[in-house]
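Extended Data, panel c. Modelled sequence:
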Amino acid sequence: MSTNSLRPLVLHAHSTGPNPYKVAIVLEALNLAYTVKLWDFSSTSAGVKGREFTSINPNGRVPALEDPNTGVTSWESLACINYLLRVYDSGNKLGPKEDEQSRADFDAWTSFLVSTLGPMMGQCNWFKHYHSEKNEDAYKRYEAQAYRCLGVLEAQVKGHGGEWILKGDKASAVDYHFEPWMKQVEFAGLSLDEYPTLKAWRERVQGSAEVVRAYKAIGEGEHAK
């Protein structure tokens, strides 16, 4: 689909969590016009628990993505990104290669982030910053699992001797899935000092123009009222 005459897509986001940034990075990488609408965590008309937003995403979470060009609304970062790849990445700029192993690897590493690494780091964030009572045992349990996952990711990037998570000479949507979570490593109380290949990957992907633009776009988003 040509992007020349498209109306801007609408990305529903907030600026504090990692998942909306994934979608913004893919939008930027595909050179798609979009606007950002920022929501708070309340049940008011400006919040993700309010009636206006839950009519877009009944789960009351960001991101959500509305496409006025197709009439399609998607929510959950994985669904939003898969939608963008199917509809707008006709040149397969960000997706897997055509062979089944490449497709399987793409799905596996994306699933690893959304089902394992992301939730473990999210729990680290929760017990380090937000839980009403200090619970060091709970934090240590998730810290250990997060480090286990970082070791898996370190071995993947180092194992094929490349610059990106999947073997190849360019970043893929898999890298963009991981980047916003990896940006939160230190906030979660973790360190990449024992994962030099992963640290170099993070510096590389965070320096890319599409990532820089995505963070700027969300930072300048319009707040819901």
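Residues 64 and 207 are 25 Å apart (CA to CA). This feature is highlighted in the accompanying rendering.
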